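ok, trying the design again with the full structure, not the truncated one.
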């Protein structure tokens, strides 16, 4: 367990998450991002090293990524 950088409590853990960046032809989905989660303050963040790597992947998504088929749905609020 780690100390949370937000609240200072012990008990923060690393969890792998998936995030999407951009939209349309510029969309990239990055899997297995090490994200720090705190059970005390419920904060969630990435380290500076992880942020730099995410930026590198986003800038080089064409050469670093691989094409996969994925379903995409748009959120539409239903009338109440």
């Amino acid at each position: 367990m780690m100390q949370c950088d937000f609240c200072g409590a012990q008990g923060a853990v690393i969890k792998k998450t998936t995030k999407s960046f951009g939209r349309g032809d510029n969309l990239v989905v990055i899997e297995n991002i090490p994200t720090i989660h705190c059970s005390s303050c419920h904060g969630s963040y990435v380290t500076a090293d992880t942020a730099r790597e995410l930026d590198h992947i986003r800038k080089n998504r064409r050469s670093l990524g691989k094409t996969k088929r994925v379903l995409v749905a748009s959120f539409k609020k239903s009338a109440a």
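Keeping the full-length input from now on. The chain has one domain: 2-64.
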